[in-house]
Design a protein that fits this description.
The chain is an alpha/beta fold. The chain has two domains: about 60 residues, no CATH class; about 180 residues, Rossmann fold (3-Layer(aba) Sandwich), CATH 3.40.50. It is about 30% helix and about 20% strand. β8, α5 and β9 form a beta-alpha-beta unit. It is globular, with a radius of gyration of 19 Å. The termini are far apart.
Length: about 260
């Protein structure tokens, strides 16, 4: 029996990658009839199941919602946005980079959010955008969501700097990426062979896996970085019910009027 990720790899050989999300959603929704149950719940779409689908280069069991294709990171952020942020509590101008369908619908439907999604070639994005060269004025957005994008971009410093530039003073951004436990980022931009990239980074379109020095990179671009431990505070029952990961949330702020001590 093929795993979901294996089917995805096979399909990519005949279908442009940017269209697979739409096609995959129809196929998995049909299969959800075989897994009717109440044990697990997706907070992105509200559907329940006796088991999620497996997914990943290194297969992860029970992680992919068959109805909306959410993964652990999507379901976790859905909870975080509602429980820990002001995203749905005030008027917000928001940029969503490489928009996940599961989250895009939620943001679009929120009456308080002036929403813009952007990507280089994703057909579901509202505008085409290169985040190393964002054609927007300084201080445009209150909130930016850029989830699992920076690991794809060779010049990540330029992308981080651009995201910082278009964020409003006192605005905040969620800049999640795959992480490794080591202090240093694993990166070699001279590697271009797709098989080698997949072997090292887990996907053939990744160019690095960040270590904890990601914080230094973000601070160099201007951000004040908070590693929010929200997922570690959740009960085990919630973690299992929604099938989410305990990981740091990279909350990046554009702080103004900092008080700097000066020695005389």
């Amino acid at each position: 029996m093929f795993e979901t990720y294996t089917l995805k790899q096979t399909a990519e050989k005949v279908v442009p990658k940017k269209y697979l999300r739409v096609l995959g959603s129809y196929a998995l929704r049909a299969s959800s009839l075989l897994y009717i149950g109440k044990k697990y719940e997706c907070p992105c779409c509200g559907h329940t199941s006796r088991k999620f689908a497996s997914y990943g280069y290194n297969t992860r069991e029970n992680v992919l919602c068959r109805w909306c294709l959410s993964l652990e990171r999507h379901r976790g952020l859905r909870l975080y946005f509602y429980e820990k942020t002001d995203l749905f509590k005030r008027d917000i101008k928001m940029l969503h980079v490489a928009p996940e369908d599961q989250l895009q619908k939620i943001f679009k439907d929120a009456p308080n959010i002036d929403y813009l999604s952007a990507d280089l070639d994703m057909p579901t994005a509202m505008v085409k955008m290169d985040i190393t060269d964002i054609q927007m004025p300084d201080n445009t957005f209150d909130v930016i969501v850029c989830n699992h994008v920076l690991e794809h971009i060779p010049n990540d410093h330029q992308a981080m700097s651009e995201l910082y530039r278009v964020l409003k003073p006192n605005g905040w951004a969620i800049l999640q990426t795959p992480m490794r436990d080591d202090a240093e980022t694993l990166e070699d931009l001279s590697i271009t062979d797709p098989k080698e990239l997949e072997r090292i980074y887990g996907q053939n379109d990744h160019v690095r896996t960040y270590g904890m020095d990601k914080k230094d990179r973000l601070e160099k671009a201007g951000f004040e970085v908070v590693l929010d431990k929200y997922f570690y505070e959740l009960d085990d029952e919630i973690i299992e019910r929604y099938r989410i990961l305990r990981e740091d949330i990279w909350l990046c702020k554009k702080v103004v009027n900092r008080i700097v001590a000066v020695s005389l």
